Write the structure tokens for this entry.
Amino acid sequence: MTKASDLAIDGEMLEALMRDYERQKRTMRTSKRRRPRKLGFKVGWVKFPLRWWKRLKEAGVGSASYDLAIAILVESFKLEQMAVKEIVLSKQVTGLSSGARRKAINTLVRLKLIRIKRAVGKAVRVTELYYLGLRGIEWVILGGISLENCAFARFSALLLRLESSMNVGWQ
């Protein structure tokens, strides 16, 4: 049977073990570099359905409704890319005050562009988007979308940010 004194480490062997332990501890601290955290999913452009543009223009709505429509389409694109789980129309997402957001949501629902779900004490959620026109989906491609440059003049709404082209036809 082995005695505990036979298993004891002392002298040079103990010093070598302690040096090795300290060196490993130092390399572990320096080798654990954290990767820089990504700032989130950024959308560079969004397709704006011509049906939406026509209905908003005919209804004569304000810029808040256009801003909300574009915010919904941006969030819809994020949903397709699995960057978000659902389209939530909070102040943080839309950048609109509560009154302007409420009026714009009601306008988009009245124009039958979206369907929503409301719950007490929670932000409004979009359940369905209506894109289809008579000939399928017609799009205007908008570029450089951000909350800062989302406010559009009433009648020249989409002409300002028209960047690439118009895609008309069956999808």
Remarks:
- Residues 49 and 139 are 4 Å apart (CA to CA).
- The first strand starts at residue 45 and ends at 49.
- The chain has one domain: 45-168.
